Amino acid sequence: MARSTRFLLPEPAAAPRETRGQRWRRKARTKLGRQVDRTILSLYRVISWLERRAPAERRYFRVAIFGSSRIQPQDESYARVKELARRLSYMGCDIVTGGGPGLMSAANEGARDGAYRYRTRSFGLTILLPIEEQPNPFLDEVAHHPTFFSRLHQFIRLSHVYLVMDGGIGTTLEAMMVWQLLQVRLVKDRPLIFVGPMWRGLRAWVESEVVGHGLASPGDLDVAYWVDDIEQALALVETARNDFLRRHEVQLPPPVLEEGPGGGTDQGQRPKQAPAPR
Question: What is the pTM assigned to this prediction?
Fold first, then answer.
């Protein structure tokens, strides 16, 4: 009969005894950490209190455009987002982006190109990252943020529509956060629009794996809009803008056309800069 051998593990080394000074420093670090946590929580409560009491923006209609910082100017998606933002600006929409390169730069550049009808503005909510460059040169206003949390909060507070273009993890994070706020109705009447075929896969995954397993309601899929091209996105934004103007009784300044030969208006020329109410 085979004999089994029992192996005994060595006893762990005895923990060094904590001196009185080490114990005092350990407790002081714990106390300081708890005070910092309480202070941060208190600040978030103040922010929430101010947010609930801040007057809603009823003078300007703003569209946030989320997209990848890695897209190059020669890419087709860069030109597509630039044209989208140009047409939104021509409609009288301010543009809000992360202020960086890639599709953010495309959106801000397009916003500047389309600002000859209404004096719309282009906002950049930047965050200092080692992998990103300085803010792009097409911004009218820049807000520097130390954290992703504060930047996303300002995105949500400033904007009335959220357009999700081609993007990676950061774009997905921003879109999912807006989606969840719409799902739980902490944000209302602000369309979230996924633009392009790449997001159809996300919808299919949520439908099969999340809704299919009872982790979300079927109606949560309809909280967001899913379109394949910028024409469909523009139609949804225009509907939201018209509803915004109707509810808040805001009138955009009319375009001023240049006079063509013979004293008439030349429809082929650009309108002059409209007088701004700002």
Answer: 0.79
